[in-house]
Design goal:
about 25% helix, 3-stranded parallel sheet, two-stranded parallel ribbon, alpha/beta
Length: about 100
């Protein structure tokens, strides 16, 4: 339940970070490393900055609740790094749009 709204996380190593229930609206994730990072019941992901400029290690995970609220604005590469195929992403975007 941490509040990272508007935080500057630029360049941070988020390996094994558990972002469950975290509020991240407007947070800057530019050049952060995501490796086995968990995103669950996050709020504000749709307004986070720099999600199109992440670095990736091992696959991360994202829950359905977070996908439901933000899949339309999440970069394809992030979703793929969370284990979703292109066809699954397309289907989910249609379902949750």
């Amino acid at each position: 339940g941490a509040n990272l709204e508007g935080a500057t996380l630029e360049g941070a190593d988020l390996t094994l970070a558990n972002l469950s229930g975290v509020r991240i609206g407007g947070a800057n994730f530019t050049d952060t490393l995501w490796s086995k990072t968990t995103i669950a019941r996050v709020t504000g992901l749709e307004t986070a900055i720099g999600l199109d400029r992440l670095r990736f290690g091992d696959p991360s995970s994202i829950d359905v609740h977070t996908l439901r609220s933000s899949i339309s604005c999440l970069p394809l590469e992030l979703l793929e790094q969370c284990g979703l195929s292109a066809s699954e992403i397309e289907s989910l975007r249609g379902l949750f749009a």
